[in-house]
Amino acid sequence: MQLLMYGTPVVYPLSSVSGNLRWLILANPMTPIVETFRYAFLGAGTASAWQLLYSAGFMLVVLTIGILIFNRVESTFMDTV
Q: Distance from the CA of 48 to the CA of which of 5, 29, 55, 76 falls in 20 to 30 A?
C-alpha cells in the first residue's frame, strides 16, 4: 500500500513527472482527484474533466464488481470471517 502511495502525486506535482512515466501515473484513478484538490487549494496543478470522468468510471466498475462478488458470497461470508 505504501508503494502505491508513491504512484499518486501527493507529495510531488504531476508536472514534475517525465513523459515516460506520466501515462503510468495518470492511469492511477486517484491522480485526478489529488490534482484537482491541489488546484483548488493551492492554485497549482491541473484540473481536467476527462480525467475526473475516468476516475468516476473506474470507481463505478470497481463498485459493480464488488457488489457482484459480495452478493455471490453473502450467504457464506460470516462462516469465512
A: 5
| Residue 64, burial from CB neighbour count under 10 angstroms (0-12, 13-18, 19+) | exposed
Residue in the structure block whose three cell numbers are 469465512: 80
- CA neighbor of 7 nearest in space, from 28, 34, 23, 38: 28
Total structural domains within the chain: 1
Task: State the Cα–Cα distance between residues 31 and 48, nearest whole angstrom.
Answer: 11
pLDDT digits (tens, 9 = 90+) for 2-31: 676 667 777 777 778 878 888 888 888 888
For the segment 35-79, what is each residue's pLDDT rounded down to a tens digit? 888 888 888 777 788 989 999 999 999 999 999 999 998 888 777
Q: Alpha helix locations (H) across 1-81?
A: 2-5, 19-27, 31-42, 49-73, 77-80
- Domain hosting residue 76, numbered range: 2-80
